């Protein structure tokens, strides 16, 4: 049966930690979202946000789309917009890795780089100004309910099915918070006792894809009641774990995945029993021009 590239989004594999997890009474699984065609977990919400926007008539072939991104969402949006023949401008801080910029342009998107000093918040401000002044339409991953619904409809059900309903803890880094919001909503419906653990950086850390948002930039889709516990991870811990994932488990992933794995392993060491699923949100080849694996 022939498939389109869109049919390959989701149904990513779970692989069990055989080295890093040393608690024999706890199962730790990594969900490999880098297996999505666009290379990250963001393929899911990007597809859902554009598809639903087209179905509702909020997006048309004449729409000028714009979105601020730290990387993976932008790549996914560039891919999906290209498939649908839509114009999109992606705005990101200038210190983003060149692999991200080049990949977005390869898919046909216009990429605008803003000052690294103002970070992703500045990129968001730039995009919002173009919406107000130039008639652009923002995909708005931070406030678009189709973001978290993608995970409610796909990520959560996949985890429940692939663990045969045994999952006790779900660990996810928090950026837009779409992954943790949607997956939490589904898993809690199946078993209210499943623990949802969010990962944030320590105050001094800068980890791509994980944020501790200032209140005025807090994603509108975020509902703190859907997260049972928030654990912090340092930049050094996240980077070290990303290297260990590659070297010891054969899982080549980025820094935010290292952050989630750090927390998942910290959690595993404290449990008497359980089944933990940790999101590996992208692939490590997005970071080769950085000094992460140097």
TrEMBL record:
Keyword Transferase: yes
Sequence ranges assigned to domain Tryptophan synthase beta chain-like PALP in this UniProt record: 6-282
Record flagged with keyword Oxidoreductase: no
Record-linked CDD domains: CBS_like
Entry keywords, A to Z: Amino-acid biosynthesis, Cysteine biosynthesis, Pyridoxal phosphate, Transferase
A Pfam family recorded for this sequence: PALP
Binding, pyridoxal 5'-phosphate: 72, 175-179, 256
Catalytic activity: O-acetyl-L-serine + hydrogen sulfide = L-cysteine + acetate
Residue list for modification N6-(pyridoxal phosphate)lysine: 42
One of the protein's GO biological processes: cysteine biosynthetic process from serine
InterPro entries per the UniProt record, alphabetical: Cys_synth, Cys_Synth/Cystath_Beta-Synth, CysM, P-phosphate_BS, TrpB-like_PALP, TrpB-like_PALP_sf
Pathway info: Amino-acid biosynthesis; L-cysteine biosynthesis; L-cysteine from L-serine: step 2/2
Gene3D superfamilies xrefs: 3.40.50.1100
Requisite cofactors: pyridoxal 5'-phosphate
PROSITE patterns: CYS_SYNTHASE
Enzyme Commission (EC) number: 2.5.1.47
GO molecular function, one term: cysteine synthase activity
Family: Belongs to the cysteine synthase/cystathionine beta-synthase family.
Alphabetized NCBIfam families for the sequence: cysKM (TIGR01136), cysM (TIGR01138), PRK11761.1 (NF008735)
Name of the protein: Cysteine synthase
Originating species: Flagellimonas ochracea
């Amino acid at each position: 049966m022939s498939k389109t590239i869109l049919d390959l989004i989701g149904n990513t594999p779970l692989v069990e930690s055989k080295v890093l997890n040393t608690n024999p009474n706890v199962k730790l699984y990594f969900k490999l979202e880098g297996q999505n065609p666009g290379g990250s977990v963001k393929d899911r919400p990007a597809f859902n946000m554009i598809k639903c926007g087209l179905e509702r008539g909020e997006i048309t072939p004449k729409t000028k789309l714009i979105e601020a991104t730290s990387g993976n969402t932008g790549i996914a949006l560039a891919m999906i917009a290209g498939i649908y023949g839509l114009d999109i401008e992606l705005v990101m801080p200038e210190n983003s890795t060149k692999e991200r910029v080049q990949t977005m342009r390869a898919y046909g998107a216009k990429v605008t780089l803003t000052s690294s000093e103002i970070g992703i918040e500045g990129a968001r401000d730039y995009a919002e100004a173009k919406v107000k002044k130039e008639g652009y339409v923002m995909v708005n991953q931070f406030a678009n309910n189709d973001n978290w619904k993608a995970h409610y409809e796909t990520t959560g059900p996949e985890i429940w099915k692939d663990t045969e309903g045994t999952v006790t803890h779900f660990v996810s880094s928090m950026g837009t918070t779409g992954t943790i919001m949607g997956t939490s909503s589904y898993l809690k419906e199946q078993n209210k006792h499943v623990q949802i653990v969010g990962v944030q950086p320590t105050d001094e850390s800068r980890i791509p894809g994980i944020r501790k948002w200032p209140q005025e930039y807090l994603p509108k889709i975020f509902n703190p009641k859907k997260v049972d516990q928030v654990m912090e991870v340092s930049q050094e811990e996240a980077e070290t774990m990303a290297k260990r994932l590659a070297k010891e488990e054969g899982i080549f992933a980025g820094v935010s995945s290292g952050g989630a794995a750090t927390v998942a392993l910290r959690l595993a060491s404290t449990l008497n029993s359980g089944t933990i699923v940790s999101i590996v949100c992208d692939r490590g080849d997005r970071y080769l021009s950085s000094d992460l694996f140097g």
